From TrEMBL:
Protein name: Nitroreductase family protein
Domain Nitroreductase positions: 9-176
Superkingdom of source: Bacteria
Organism in which the protein naturally occurs: Vagococcus proximus
One Pfam family from the record: Nitroreductase
CDD domains: Frm2-like (cd02140)
Cross-referenced InterPro entries: Frm2/Hbn1, Nitroreductase, Nitroreductase-like
Length: 198
């Protein structure tokens, strides 16, 4: 088994996280920036964007999520929702992933034959960027999950952190020290997923 495959196996959804990460914020930024910069994108468009929230900004995000969810959640279910959000807020920080729609629109104008495909390729790019960062963090013993409270929180997030209008929020990744490992992972039979031909 290659070291790369071992790294992929190490990347899991870690829901029990804390804020006692040994790496500095600068070191974390470098890992996140480099992982995104090395992620492939259609026509090398480099359409992925990221905002890293630490400390007060990190806490503010999950307060925004809670405030936006409260009117939409049955009162009897809200304590469970609050507990889930508190588990994300307990981490070291959150990465907000975006795709720059101006980049996508420009490519659609330049390459009209492929215009319909660029939004799909953008989704693939953000997924790969998220996976790259997630795996890079796991290599450093940092747990994370990917959450999707967009588009519910888009307006408040854009207002709070002055996000460019062309940046479309695609996911939120709370991360931190691993307080409890992920459970065992079950795999489908290879014969149900893969085919090989000669």
């Amino acid at each position: 088994m290659t070291n790369y495959i071992k790294s992929l196996q190490k990347r899991r959804s870690i829901y029990s996280i804390g804020n006692d990460v040994s790496l500095s914020e600068s070191e974390l930024e470098t890992i996140i920036f480099d992982a995104i910069k090395e992620t492939p994108s259609a026509f090398n468009s480099q359409s992925s964007r990221a905002v890293i929230l630490f400390d007060n900004a990190h806490q503010a995000l999950w307060t925004i999520v809670e405030n936006e969810l409260k009117p939409l959640t049955p009162e009897e279910n809200f304590p469970q929702t609050q507990a889930k959000l508190a588990s994300f807020a307990a981490g070291k920080g959150t990465i907000l992933f975006f795709e720059d729609t101006d980049v996508i629109a420009s490519l659609q104008d330049q390459f009209k034959l492929y215009a319909a495909n660029f939004p799909l390729w953008s989704e693939q790019s953000t997924g790969m960027a998220q996976h790259s960062v997630w795996t890079a963090l796991a290599e450093k013993e940092i747990g994370a999950t990917i959450q999707h409270y967009n588009p519910l929180i888009d307006e408040k997030v854009a207002e709070k952190w002055n996000i460019p209008a062309s940046w479309r929020l695609t996911g939120q990744m709370p991360f931190g020290s691993i307080k409890a490992p992920a459970g065992d992972k079950e795999y489908m039979a290879d014969t149900d997923r893969f085919r090989t031909f000669n």
